[in-house]
Here is the input.
Amino acid sequence: MFYVGLSVQPGREDVAAAFAAHAPQARLRWGALDDDCAGAVFLELHRNASEFPFALHATNLAGGDDYELGLAIARTLSLALRCRSVCDGTRHGPGRAPGWCVVWDQGRAYLGDDYNSLFYDDSPELSAEQRAQLGPVRLLHRLDL
Here is the structure.
């Protein structure tokens, strides 16, 4: 499973083109998991209260490395939609902490820290005061990817 946060709403055709470029063998299925899962990638688009208001969640049953596929899809969508995107960056941070992310800005990669961010930490259980303490994903430095 992997995620890609986006600053603009992607169309299904944009998502399909990104997967065609990086996982051409995958059958894309929009919606929750079901019994027809051989070679499928199940996709759901959720709203997010952050600077990345659209979060694409992918459950990859087609094989391959979810981390690398997430990076490629996030970069491709950033370029195609001329927007910012965010994805898992745990392999690029100085440690294996889950708060590392990669932020793509029209194809340029940055290491980000999404702890205490609206993107990562917002939840319905938070009070208004707790939510007000959250901010944007912090960019740390440029990555050469």
